UniProtKB/TrEMBL annotation:
<dbReference type="Pfam" id="PF01351">
    <property type="entry name" value="RNase_HII"/>
</dbReference>
<dbReference type="GO" id="GO:0004523">
    <property type="term" value="F:RNA-DNA hybrid ribonuclease activity"/>
</dbReference>
<feature type="binding site">
    <location>
        <position position="17"/>
    </location>
    <ligand>
        <name>a divalent metal cation</name>
    </ligand>
</feature>
<keyword id="KW-0963">Cytoplasm</keyword>
<keyword id="KW-0255">Endonuclease</keyword>
<feature type="binding site">
    <location>
        <position position="108"/>
    </location>
    <ligand>
        <name>a divalent metal cation</name>
    </ligand>
</feature>
<dbReference type="GO" id="GO:0043137">
    <property type="term" value="P:DNA replication, removal of RNA primer"/>
</dbReference>
<dbReference type="InterPro" id="IPR022898">
    <property type="entry name" value="RNase_HII"/>
</dbReference>
<feature type="binding site">
    <location>
        <position position="16"/>
    </location>
    <ligand>
        <name>a divalent metal cation</name>
    </ligand>
</feature>
<keyword id="KW-0540">Nuclease</keyword>
<keyword id="KW-0464">Manganese</keyword>
<comment type="similarity">
    <text>Belongs to the RNase HII family.</text>
</comment>
<dbReference type="GO" id="GO:0030145">
    <property type="term" value="F:manganese ion binding"/>
</dbReference>
<dbReference type="GO" id="GO:0003723">
    <property type="term" value="F:RNA binding"/>
</dbReference>
<keyword id="KW-0378">Hydrolase</keyword>
<dbReference type="InterPro" id="IPR036397">
    <property type="entry name" value="RNaseH_sf"/>
</dbReference>
<dbReference type="InterPro" id="IPR001352">
    <property type="entry name" value="RNase_HII/HIII"/>
</dbReference>
Length: 199
């Protein structure tokens, strides 16, 4: 069972992002404040949850959370400021949008830029430890998947309905064949270096 909180005194928000390792599309982040006694048996790190269950969880989280917010930073800005800064910026934007400001922030991962003077803790694999981070991971993932699904209708060759912009074989083959799109991250290595030398 996931832990309800990291400390008991302060109002805590969990934060996580989705889409950091993608070749295309924005990075999404979510911030969630859950009630202290929140229990949801299926809740886990979004990567460990089946897509259909993620959708069910999203509905419950949105209904039961004290408050939640989702934000994104697009590929153009990712190329400008780098993906790590873009991930932190998306988290800050999500935190800013919360109806109630947290007094303590739990972040999935090992690094974070301080959000004003609000104390935070970085928790490696926190989305499998704390309910609020797991809830944030579910929201970030489902919102991003939905966005990539919409983009897929305009750019069907890349298989974004399935790979969501991650570097799969199908995605890379489509880049080879059709070139990149306005949604690709130009600073990412879209194609691996050529392995064979032309002799």
């Amino acid at each position: 069972m996931l832990l309800s909180y990291h400390q008991e005194l302060l109002i805590e928000a969990g934060c996580d992002e989705a889409g950091r390792g993608c070749l295309a599309g924005p990075v999404f982040a979510a911030a969630v404040i859950l009630p202290k006694k929140f229990r949801l048996p299926l809740l886990n790190d979004s990567k460990q949850v089946k897509p259909a269950d993620r959708e069910k969880l999203r509905t419950v989280i949105e209904k039961k959370a004290v408050c939640y917010a989702v934000a994104s930073v697009d590929n153009v800005e990712i190329d400008k400021i780098n993906i790590l800064k873009a991930s932190f910026k998306a988290m800050h934007l999500a935190l800013e949008k919360l109806q109630q400001q947290p007094e303590f922030i739990l972040v999935d991962g090992n690094r974070f830029y301080a959000y004003g003077s609000t104390p935070h803790a970085c928790i490696i694999q926190g989305d499998g430890i704390y309910a609020s981070i797991a809830a944030a991971s579910i929201l970030a993932k489902t919102y991003r998947d939905e966005y990539m699904q919409q983009l897929h209708t305009t750019y069907p060759h890349f298989g974004w309905d399935v790979n969501k912009g991650y570097p799969t074989k199908q995605h890379r083959n489509a880049i080879r064949e059709f070139g990149d799109t306005p949604y690709h991250r130009k600073t990412f290595r879209l194609l691996p270096e050529q392995l064979e030398l032309d002799l």
